[in-house]
């Protein structure tokens, strides 16, 4: 399973741990709307609570959970809503899968007994955090 969190980068490097708001930048309201899932069943309470906790962070625009094949299991956040949101969701899911595959292969080639677990990507406008569980 893979979760993707997209946030605008703050002006300084954040060392906040998941579940904390330390270093999250200036306070801004966070919408609490959720896009329908691609499955008909609600996830385990631990998963739902993690999605809720991530979604409540300032500046978090969306959270995606994918299966190993890159299929969206669950998504949350205003960036993935509406007709444009579906396109954005598919693009994020597709690109996240490609990135994880490429970086995971590189890690395997460098250290045969090591595996990719977490990946953080920052651009000028956004930041994606990918937790990979092979």
Automatic annotation (TrEMBL):
Stretches with biased composition (Low complexity): 25-45
Top-level division of the source organism's lineage: Eukaryota
Region (Disordered): 1-48
Classification via InterPro entries: Roadblock/LAMTOR2_dom
Domain Roadblock/LAMTOR2 intervals: 47-127
Record's compositionally biased regions (Polar residues): 1-18
Signal peptide: none
Family: Belongs to the GAMAD family.
Name of the featured protein: Roadblock/LAMTOR2 domain-containing protein
Organism (species): Puccinia graminis f. sp. tritici
């Amino acid at each position: 399973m893979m979760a993707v969190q997209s946030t605008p980068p703050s002006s300084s490097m954040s060392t906040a741990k998941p579940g904390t708001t330390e270093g999250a930048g200036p306070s801004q309201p966070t919408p609490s709307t959720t896009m329908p899932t691609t499955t008909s069943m609600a996830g385990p309470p631990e998963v739902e609570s993690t999605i809720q906790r991530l979604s409540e962070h300032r500046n978090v625009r969306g959270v995606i959970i994918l299966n190993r094949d890159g299929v969206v299991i669950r998504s949350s956040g205003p960036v993935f809503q509406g007709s444009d949101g579906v396109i954005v969701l598919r693009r994020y899911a597709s690109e996240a899968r490609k990135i994880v595959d490429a970086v995971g292969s590189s890690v395997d080639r460098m250290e045969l007994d090591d595996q990719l677990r977490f990946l953080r990507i920052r651009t000028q406008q956004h930041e994606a955090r990918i937790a990979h569980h092979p």
